[in-house]
Design goal:
6-stranded antiparallel beta sheet; alpha+beta; about 25% strand; 5-stranded antiparallel beta sheet; about 250 residues
């Protein structure tokens, strides 16, 4: 890892929910960040998100420990996908064997920093962004019914912002026996900030508003706290979770 990384995260229940079903995990030793937004019955969503983040981290770590030489970049993507599949297997099994966990699942977005790239893997509508020179770019494309309708020309982006079914995801951990993590590399350089977030942030704030909050605050902890505060000020209709990773 040629660049030094600084991390911060924030979790908030929001203003409309009684429990927090999001989970965040940062492992600096692996250059790995994972964020999950759980769904399901009472307490089951938070079980799914917590299980998925930890199983994915542990599986990815075991793969790294088994290496005898530095991995090729394509191998990092394969390892991320395999770790997500193991998380899916365990969440799916729990959902189908424990009555209290029936129907649970979770979105997931993960970032692995490797050399001059960050590998982003995601399922569902939790997102990854890159802030570079004041410009915020969305690095993921939602796996959601809403995004499919936008892609098909059935809805404009403006109409999508007010759609009632905006939280119906088409891909998630724990829903089917097999899952395919979408993984892509993105270049990174000193000064970049990578943001992972649940839809509790991206549904409340536009990309322009997110960028403005990040630009106003200098410290990473301040940025994370300010994003949560802004999402709550805009309504806080869902749990809000963010992970920030800045490259120096």
């Amino acid at each position: 890892m040629p660049l030094r990384l600084e991390y911060s995260s924030a979790l908030d229940v929001g203003r409309a929910r009684h429990n927090n079903e999001d989970a965040v995990l940062i492992d600096p030793s692996l250059g790995l960040c994972i964020l999950a937004d759980g769904m399901g019955g009472y307490n089951a969503g938070e079980v799914a998100s917590d299980m998925a983040t930890k199983v994915m981290r542990d599986t990815f770590r075991q793969w790294l420990l088994g290496l005898t030489q530095a991995p090729a970049e394509a191998e990092v993507a394969q390892a991320l996908a395999a770790a997500a599949q193991e998380a899916n297997r365990q969440v799916f099994t729990a959902a189908n064997t424990v009555a209290a966990y029936a129907g649970m699942g979770t979105t997931l977005v993960a970032a692995v920093f490797e050399r001059q790239h960050v590998w982003i893997g995601h399922l569902g509508d939790s997102r990854a962004y890159r802030l570079r020179n004041g410009r915020l770019s969305q690095l993921t494309r939602d796996h959601s019914l809403l995004q499919e309708q936008v892609d098909a020309g059935l809805l404009t982006q403006e109409e999508a912002a007010y759609a009632l079914h905006r939280n119906l995801v088409t891909r998630a951990i724990g829903v089917e026996p097999q899952v395919v993590l979408e993984v892509h590399p993105h270049d990174v350089k000193a000064g970049d900030t990578i943001l992972l977030c649940s839809d509790g942030l991206s549904d409340m704030l536009s990309d322009t508003q997110i960028a403005q909050v990040l630009e106003i605050n200098n410290s990473l902890d301040g940025q994370a706290a300010a994003l949560v505060e802004a999402a709550n000020a805009a309504g806080g209709r869902d749990n809000i979770s963010v992970i920030l990773a800045k490259l120096h």
